Fold this sequence. Notes:
The complex is a heterodimer of chains A (242) and B (470). By secondary structure, chain A is α/β, with parallel strands linked by helices. Chain A has 9 helices and 11 strands.
Amino acid sequence: MLKLTNLIVSIDDKTILNGINFTFEKGKTYAIMGPNGSGKSTLAYALMGHPAYQILNPKSEIRSSIELNGQDITEMEPNERAQEGMFLSFQTPLSLSGVKVYQLLQLAMNGKKDPLQIRKEAQAYAKELGISEELLNRPLNEGASGGERKKMEVLQAAVLEKQLLIFDEVDTGVDVDALKSISTFLTKYKRDKTYIVITHYNRILHYLKPDQVLVMINGNISKIGGPELAKQIEDEGYESIK
Amino acid sequence: MKSTRDKQKEDLNFDYKYGFSMPEKPVFKSKKGLREDVVRMISQIKEEPEWMLNVRLKAYKIFLEKKMPTFGPSLEKIDFDDIYYYLKPTEGQVNSWEDLPKEIKETYDRIGVPEAEKKYLAGVSAQYESEVVYESVNKELAKVGVIFCDMDTALREHEDLVKEYFGTLIPAHDNKFAALNTATWSGGSFVYVPKGVKVKLPLQAYFRINSERFGQFERTLIIAEEGSEVHYVEGCTAPIYTSESLHAAVVEIFVKKDAHVRYTTVQNWSTNIYNLVTKRTHCAERGFMEWIDCNIGSGITMKYPSVYLYGEGARGEVLSIAFAGKGQIQDAGAKMMHFAPNTSSRIVSKSISKDGGRTSYRGLVQVSPKAKNSSVYVSCDALILDEESRSDTYPSMKIKEDDVEIQHEATVEKLGDEKLFYLMSRGLSKPDAESALVLGFMEPVTKEIPLEYSIELNRLIKLEMEGSVG
């Protein structure tokens, strides 16, 4: 479904990802772990098309590319990628002054879903996630806690019905209860969606049960394994797999 | 036959009736340039009482003596000798839609104005449905003693009231443009609300479609008696085109004890206009004045609505939005003068500049000795959309009393790449993301504007944003 070929990504002329080759299959759940600075968030941003992250094509090497469902999306704008079904749940979701989540969702759906329907769904999902009505009616994330912000990301993904979801540390800065409601929610609505879960901790993986765990070190995928790899990292650290 | 309004609803899916205006299409023009005989002629044509002629003549002399403002954008291109000072408007004029400048026609098209309205805006059509609306509204108002008419009518029919208040708050010698207005004024609104009367519906200048309201030198006078309430709305979001280059209005408002006046302006003059306006309120004990001022159009605007808080416990607010695009300078702000104890003022200014436009916040807050226990809040935020654009802040505070609470916040921000990326990652196109952020930035002010206007204003800003950035 999502195929990365020799993906080389740099920011401010510093190369972060050093030629990643991997294919994410439809309907599966992937965990991406790795020490700080190993390039996990860079991968998330590059997949979503952040303009500051440049995809490089060094001469005499295989072209650096991202393919989604057989379509080359390497040059696509973030909004075009979103329309192809991609979604990025941000590590630090921003707050937007004067823009409510309803407005954002309405603009994002661009007429494909009735505004009333959007409101109804958002309210229902909010209830499941434990987001207060009051927070929904505020400008997005204004005065919201870390956990509330993460929940709001998950809610947006659900209303927008995205198929390929990248969660950049959706479990960081989230208390036990919030983690539980987020995980339960994601499990419930998993269906045939593809999840890429970037995390430092095994605890979210207890809920989400990844099919594969990828370990990134220095901008490369250095190890691929099953859930037991996450456990090993939790117990012994990254040193053990270097 | 479908009524125009039904058609509008079909075409626009929201009610456009509040947003229209009509440029003056004169059949009679005075000679170019301002001389004493022109001032006399204006007064004569209007068959004014002698005292008004004298007010005009005195103001004319002051205008000649007064210097141009020493602050703000350059006004040296204004050629006072190249302006018609009196245009007599008329009905049934035939003027061609094709004669309007291309960009104005295009904007109408893009806003989605139905054909009938286009003609109406262009001054081609002489059918004024609104006249009927105005008549019935006025009938209701008259029952409770509210007077709402144009200034020329007011001078004929309510001379005593006009004489009592006219020019007492903004005298001719206040500034050169106030003098010019006093000498040459035509049109504008007159509103009188008797004691204790609360006018529920906003009074809209639009209702007076057939009068001289869009003269260049309009003069507005609002008197809200003790305990009364009124909301007055002027302007519209559809661009107003006039071939004349100077608009110098004067607005005087008297808020009596416990009264509440809200004055909303949405200004979208075409960009060839110098918009130089003096607006002031006299606020008595526990009176409350709100100016909501949105400046989108004009080439250069200089406007600083003020509130003179004379009575104990009086409150004043100015909420403003300024949008400066290519070649535009919006020099806007507010003036709050605290003369009595327990008075409070609040200024919230939001400005946006793009494509080389310039916005300035220019504000003065003065607290006199004895204005004890007063509070002042000033917040001015500027959003700059690109490298060529600019925003400046000139806040001035003269505080002569110690027992005062003062808060002042100012921010300047650029449209952040991270916010744009966030919105685009949700599926919004870049222009949509940009306008969402700009509209969000303005929201604290737009939420105070009547819904019909804020919808139009948001549409207009979106239009301004399109194809501009990115």
